[in-house]
Amino acid sequence: METIRLHKGLDLHLAGEAQKKVLQTLEPDTVSVRPSDYRSMVPKLLVAEGDAVLAGQLVFLDKKRPQIGFASPISGTVKAIVRGEKRKLLSVEIAADKETRYAQFEKLSIAKASRQEIQKVLLESGLWAGIIQRPYGIIANPEDTPKAIVVSAFNSAPLAADINFTLKNDADAMQIAVDALAKFTTGKVYVNLSYNNGNGSPLNLLRNVEKTMFKGPHPAGNVGVQINHLCPIGKGETVWTVQPQILAAMGRLFSKGIYDVTRLVAITGPRAVETGYVRCVPGVAMKDLKAVAGVVENMDIYGQPTGVRYVSGNPLSGENVGEGGSLGFYDDTVTFLSEGNYRELFGWAKPFRMKKFSSSRAYFSWLCPKKQYKADTNVNGGERAFIVSDVYGKVLPMDIYPVYLLKAILAEDIEKMEQFGIYEVIGEDFALCEYVDPSKIEIQKIIDKGIDLMLKEMA
């Protein structure tokens, strides 16, 4: 097995890592299906308040590509259609039945099934939404044939769920899924493992795939970084990616004929009193997950009153959904952080602070490389101009020029954006750049803006 060694990056050791135990199976009263979970999608509603729905029944579809729909993860009754400004659809709230009833789909023998039969079941069930294409990080076009399909078997982000634990019993389901996906590409299906613990991964048991080991700090587990080293994307090319928990759901769909997206979700973060894993579906309310974690209000790691930030995903690239939010469709981690709404007098001149981590060794905390830090959301300053340095290059192990790409996006120069690598990146690939940035620039938002511009201009 080939090993690719990455020397650029940064591992953040944060307090609140999930203990490897299942805390409970969460049966929520209500779940939310949110269009905002999916990039570049305009929803068309298929249900009304009071309608009964089954798990796997489509509740809205994409107006631009009506063959792609999005399903309810549970059975129940549509409780509310939540809209925002200009009647924008924000979410479909579904009150759960006491016992889940599933829509039935055709079971497939993957060895005999054609691409068209597999595609039909994925589209009808709503699980096609789990296939993401690069460039742009949008839902894949069913008419395309990708040059490769890439699966990252590990997540190197801080506090991320341990896939070796969450999917240890799903190897058979994932094998069915990769065999099905192989019929969509003329290239290879890549499964990329961690050099540190990849031998024990359930994805290491998969057959008929190209396996590669990745060694190095975060973002070694980002699928965008892996694509950059295995099969770089040029203009007019596409690569599809699928997350491991989606693979498991696809395997259950083909073998059992049901839309079962149940997963183990890591409960993490410095504000979580109890960490571990909860078995639940995407769309579960954040307040239900907060109750499991035992989050305590009005406390701060510095003894100052503060609120809690509710993040669906990891601390670097997850979404701040608020206490009234819900778990995203693609997420298997929830992070509870302290809001950093305070100022420190002469904070920049205190090198002896051992409770704060510094990527630039500004504090003596670097003498304790394995220490876990109770991080909060304080950015320690305001936004300022770009600083000419290689600070981004030290943490981005990709063959692109990050500063030039960001400036091309701000200038809305399509040709320069193509030249400097817009086809290969999404916001999460720049999360570490944003973390170490001395200018406090919201780099992920700039990348998202560039992708939206490309989608608009290149349509």
Structural class: alpha/beta
> What is the total tally of β strands?
20
Describe the main β-sheet briefly. 7 strands, mixed
pLDDT averaged over residues? 93
Topology pattern, helix = H, strand = E: EEEEEEEEEHEEEHHEEHEHEEHEEEHHHH
Specify the number of helices.
10
- Enumerate the strands of the largest sheet in spatial order, edge to edge or round the barrel: 1-14-13-12-15-10-11
Shape: globular
Proportion of residues in extended strands: 15-25%
Compute the CA-based radius of gyration: 22 Å
Give a short synopsis of this structure.
With 459 residues, the protein is of the alpha/beta class. Helices cover 20% and strands 20% of the residues.
